[in-house]
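C-alpha cells for chain A. Residues wanted.
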C-alpha cells in the first residue's frame, strides 16, 4: 500500500538522506572553522558585497540585513542582496565567502545568466508542484485513479527540474565568488582554501537536495507501476 510509512520509500530515499546529513555536517564544520579566521582585508560581509558591487559596476543593487541563521539570499525581483546578521556584520572568512556567493547571484542576474533566468521562471511552478503533488498522488492511489497519480507525478517533476537547474546556478555563483575574492585581494592565498571549503560544503547541500528530489520521483514512478512497482 502507498502510505506515509511505506518502508520502500525509506529504501529509495536512504542515499539522499545520508548525503543530506553528511552535507549539513560539512557545512556546519566548514562554517565553524571559517568563522574563527578574521580576513586580512578586515572586511565584513556587507562591506565585501558592497566592494564587489562597486568593482563590477552593478547598478541599483541594495544590500540589506535579514533575520535568520544563514538566511542569506539575492532577490532578483527587487534587486536586493539580503544577508543574515552573522554575515552582514561578521568579519570572518565565512562571512566574506557567503556574501561573495550572494553577490555572484547578483552578477548572474545583471549579465542575464540563462540558467538563472530559467530558474527564476521555474520558481512558481516548483512551488505549486511541490505543494500539490503529494496530495494529488495520495488521492490518486485512494481512488485508484492513474490519471490523478500521473498528474501528481508531473506536478512533482517541476520540483525536480527546478533542482536540476538550480545546481549549476549555485556552483557558478560560488565560482564567481572565489574568483572575485582572489582578484580583488579580499582574501589572501592562504585564506582562499578556507573560503573554498565553506562554499564547497554549501554546494553539497544543493547536490543532496537534487538527488533526494530525483529519488522521490523515482519512488512515485515505482509505486505507480511505471518502474516495475505495483500499488498492492
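Reply:
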Amino acid at each position: 500500500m502507498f502510505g506515509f510509512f511505506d518502508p520502500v520509500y525509506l529504501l529509495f530515499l536512504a542515499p539522499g538522506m545520508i548525503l543530506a546529513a553528511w552535507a549539513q555536517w560539512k557545512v556546519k564544520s566548514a562554517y565553524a572553522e571559517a568563522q574563527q579566521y578574521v580576513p586580512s582585508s578586515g572586511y565584513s560581509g556587507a562591506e565585501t558585497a558592497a566592494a564587489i558591487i562597486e568593482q563590477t559596476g552593478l547598478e541599483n543593487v541594495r544590500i540589506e540585513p535579514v533575520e535568520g541563521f544563514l538566511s542569506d539570499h539575492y532577490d532578483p525581483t527587487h534587486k536586493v542582496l539580503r544577508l543574515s546578521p552573522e554575515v552582514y556584520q561578521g568579519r570572518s572568512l565565512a562571512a566574506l565567502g557567503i556574501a561573495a556567493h550572494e553577490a555572484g547571484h547578483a552578477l548572474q542576474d545583471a549579465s542575464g545568466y540563462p540558467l538563472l533566468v530559467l530558474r527564476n521562471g521555474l520558481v512558481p511552478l516548483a512551488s505549486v508542484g511541490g505543494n500539490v503533488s503529494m496530495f494529488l498522488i495520495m488521492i490518486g492511489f485512494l481512488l485508484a485513479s492513474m490519471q490523478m497519480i500521473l498528474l501528481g507525478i508531473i506536478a512533482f517533476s517541476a520540483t525536480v527540474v527546478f533542482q536540476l537547474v538550480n545546481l549549476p546556478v549555485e556552483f557558478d555563483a560560488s565560482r564567481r565568488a572565489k574568483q572575485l575574492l582572489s582578484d580583488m585581494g579580499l582574501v589572501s592565498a592562504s585564506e582562499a582554501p578556507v573560503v573554498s571549503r565553506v562554499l564547497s560544503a554549501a554546494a553539497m547541500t544543493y547536490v543532496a537536495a537534487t538527488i533526494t528530489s530525483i529519488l522521490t520521483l523515482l519512488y512515485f514512478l515505482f509505486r505507480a507501476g511505471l518502474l516495475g512497482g505495483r500499488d498492492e
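The beta strands are 62-65, 73-75, 80-83. The mean pLDDT is 92.
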